[in-house]
Structures are given as structure tokens and as C-alpha cells.
Amino acid sequence: MIIAQPDDLKLIKHIVATGGHKRMIGELDRDKYQRLVELGWLKAFVTNISEVSYWVTERGRAAASR
Hints:
Helix content: 40-55%
CATH class: Mainly Alpha
Strand content: 25-35%
CATH topology: Arc Repressor Mutant, subunit A
Radius of gyration: 11 Å
């Protein structure tokens, strides 16, 4: 079980405030976004091998409103 950390809350609040989604293209470190997926706050959609779109879930919106 993953326990949310202060940096997780800061990141989900930023994603919600900037439209509720984040697109990652290329060889970037996705670990911090994967943590939010594991917390159930983001849903990942892989569009191709080098591109992932992350969308905030209802659970993520609830966490961002804390």
C-alpha cells in the first residue's frame, strides 16, 4: 500500500489547477506520475511507446481539494 506524501498532494493539486491532465512525451522520468496512478489519483493512457497521457480521477480531485 502506498501512502500519499506531501509532494504527491502538491503535484495532484497542480495538475487539477492546470486542466486535470498531463501529457508526457519522450524519455522523461514518469515515476512521480506513476505514484499518483498507484494512489488511484490519475489514470494513465498510453498512446504509443513514447507518449503517455495522465488524467485526474474523481479520487484525485477529492485529494486535490484537501
